[in-house]
Amino acid sequence: MVEVLNGSSSSQNGKEAARTHAPPPPDYMGHDREEVTRILLQALSDMGYHAAAESVSRDSGFELESPTVAAFRMAVLDGAWGRAEELLSGATLSGDRHQQQTERGNGLVLAPHADRNHMRVWLRQQKFLELLERRETARALIVLRTELTPLCVEQHQKLHFLSSLLMCQSPDDLKKKAAWDGAFGTSREILLSQLSRCISPSVMLPEHRLAMLLQQVKDNQIGQCLYHTSAEPPSLYSDHACDRSQFPHEMLVELDKHSSEVWQVRFSNDGSRLASCGMDRSVIIWRVPTFEVIHTIEASETGEVGNLAWSPDDKMLVSCGRDRYAKIWDTESGDLIRTVERFNEPVSSCVWTRDGSSLIIGTLDKDKSLCQWDLALDSVHVWTRKHRTEDLAISPDGQWLAAMDEQNRLHIYNVATREQEYELELKTRPTSVSISHDSRHLLVNKTDGEAQLIDIASRDVVQRYRGHSGGEFTIRSDFGGANESFVISGSEDGYVMVWHKATGIAVQRLDAHQPRCNSVAWNPADPTMFATCGDDNKIKM
């Protein structure tokens, strides 16, 4: 008896077909045979199995790319700019899907959205930079004047920037100013990737196509898993589903060191500590998972502490007080590092910039409702819009800043330019705002008992979450769980609600605090742990 092994050369799979030399079926499980084969050829090459890719190409009769497309690829990677432009000039424009079936053997075909002049600019810019890198300044100047300028007549700023590079004193200076790593770095590969997006996928496959398809499969399975608690990526060997019993639903411990209402809980970025604050004017830092008190900080003498923000490296913590101060604390020693100058109204919120070099403070002071300070507490910028800021969120990629005012509006700013990108008018007063880990979505909790998921780029509401109750007080919601698959919120009626982020289905409703559950936080390092706090002076894990 011959042993049957998955993937082994002794496998019986397909043996009878091989013996009878039956022709292969016209498709593969309903998929176009040539498309599947070309994707496999690309994947084998990506993984370094070049001999296997050549064997599959030979046996199937299909090629990954036509000789013309392969020549264009090599021309770009070898820096043969004349040859690359010659092939680009001879390229045809892609047609409809039926025409695409015949495109694969017809040389270089551009995608419908492609702009041939833009592609020429990219090629000539690389040529210009490489001449400068080799210190061939005279030839680079000719390229700039006779090849780039005619294509960029309306792009004055671009031409001015390229002209300024002629003054670079060394290749290193050029690379730094141009944010470019040279001819022998990855710049040519990056250029080819940019160009490939303008070429029909029927002749040049998008990069790492099989990996992208497999990731979409994983993302879809995670998105459909209502009780996703595994931080590990799903296996490709089987369909994915998490056990409902592993989803957090039992109280682990109750923390009762606060003497009054607890208004905010925040995990550190590494999940090893938890900070809390509230009406008793103190900030308590707890160790996770033992939940011993590390520090009890008397953060305010005259007013409650309503909000907290950990620095990106977790070494500092900002407290926002109704005493009109924001204070920076050392989380290792518990000592006060600095106090931001006193505002005319309470400080409502604070976020750190991505690099931790400065912080942005929101206040109820209309003259200074949104201010940026560096760590020396020198004012960096003051936004001049006349509204109060009640809550803030900054995107993890450092691009977006969301400021919630008292007039049912959200102000979305570009962090780099500090310009307002747009303003969202809400029908009901919001109570908190968060931004997802992938920096794509806003989560807005509202007093009408609805939380909304808003696409930052399109400004569309993509999901709604219902089942909790709002009120006149701040009720916070947040993202959390494995792959940030869930939305969690406190509630005016004391419950904590958990929804599946993608579908909006309520997967958990737990009796948390009476009379009110004020804030929630999901441990970023443990998808099976979240914290809640409330008006009963307690924190529950």
TrEMBL record:
InterPro entries: LisH, WD40/YVTN_repeat-like_dom_sf, WD40_repeat_CS, WD40_repeat_dom_sf, WD40_rpt, WD_repeat-ST_regulator
This protein's record includes keyword DNA repair: no
Name of a matching Pfam family: WD40
Biased composition (Polar residues): 1-14
Keywords from the named record: Repeat, WD repeat
Protein's name in the database: WD40-repeat-containing domain protein
The keyword Repeat belongs to this UniProt entry's keyword annotation: yes
Spans of repeat WD: 255-296, 298-339
Naturally occurring in which organism (per UniProt): Bombardia bombarda
Region: Disordered, residue numbers: 1-31
